[in-house]
Amino acid sequence: MRSSKALESPIFSHPDSQLLRQYIRRQRRELSIHYRRQAGHAVVRHIRKQSTFMHATKIGLYIDAFGEIPTQSLIKLCLKLKKSIYFPVVIAKDQPLAWAQVKAKYTSRMTSHRFGMKQPSKQRGLSVMDLDVIFMPLVAYDDKGHRLGMGGGFYDRSLSRCMEKPFNNKRSHRQHFKKPYRVGMAYDFQRVDLLETNPWDISLHAVVTPTQYQRFNTVARDSFLH
Ligand SMILES: Nc1nc2c(c(=O)[nH]1)N(C=O)[C@@H](CNc1ccc(C(=O)N[C@@H](CCC(=O)O)C(=O)O)cc1)CN2
Ligand SMILES: Nc1ncnc2c1ncn2[C@@H]1O[C@H](COP(=O)(O)OP(=O)(O)OP(=O)(O)O)[C@@H](O)[C@H]1O
Predict the structure, then answer these.
(1) Could you say which residues bind substrate here (predicted)?
(2) Which residues are annotated as a binding site?
(3) Which of 7, 20, 63, 139 has a CA between 20 and 30 Å from the CA of residue 108?
(4) What are the sequence ranges of the domains in the chain?
(5) pLDDT tens digits for 83-103?
(6) What is the number of the ligand closest to the CA of 117?
(7) pTM for the complete prediction?
(8) From ligand 1's centre to the CA of 114, what distance in Å?
(9) What ligand 1 atom has the least distance to the C-alpha of 154?
């Protein structure tokens, strides 16, 4: 797919997160279903080459809404590779997400949440730190791996628990990160020059777009925190 340049409008050099959210969410909503589907296939072609993904067992995904990168192809791949897949469940506004496991016929056990997305009907599940890799929706990201989400703080709130603890996975030559490995899913136009950051923000290990799989230098930051 064609790459698009990062947004360079002056209003984003000291970005107002709310304005940026509105701007990118509108762009995302206007994409055709065909364009979105192609993007969903394209990201999978990058993901399947990643050893972190191929070695992972428990994968956190999302059910796309709001024009996000579709996850259907990724779900199919995970199931084909016999991985266990988990979807986020919003329990309450100030609570971390619960991660409910979903098997092949996942569509029958979903409910619509009033925020606008579908989620598993189950109100219980794993904690995010039990997952090996988590694919996260996002509104914008920058080259340092900062992530801007929908503004609910759900991912940051959930992931903050992992950052408080020492390395919670057995470290091998392959695993120099704190579980879960955090991968953002984005269209290329969601990259911005520099995002405004907050103390609670938890950055990404990598981002996958239709044109590339980009790793960030998050390892050093993870290590400082234990
Ligand atoms: N597909 C998907 N699922 C997800 C997320 C996401 O970003 N995408 N989340 C990531 O955190 C959590 C849900 N977070 C959300 C936070 C805010 C809004 C939101 O602003 N929704 C409405 C207004 C809601 C209201 O009526 O109060 C809107 O679209 O304007 C939606 C989801 C968990 N599941
Ligand atoms: N670790 C945390 N503990 C308590 N509150 C938090 C934490 N992380 C975020 N929040 C709260 O969530 C609110 C929204 O945060 P932010 O704008 O960074 O969300 P976001 O990353 O865009 O959303 P999401 O992660 O759901 O996609 C903030 O006002 C903040 O007070």
Answers:
(1) 63, 68
(2) 63, 68, 147-155
(3) 139
(4) 17-215
(5) 999 999 999 999 999 999 998
(6) 1
(7) 0.90
(8) 9
(9) 11
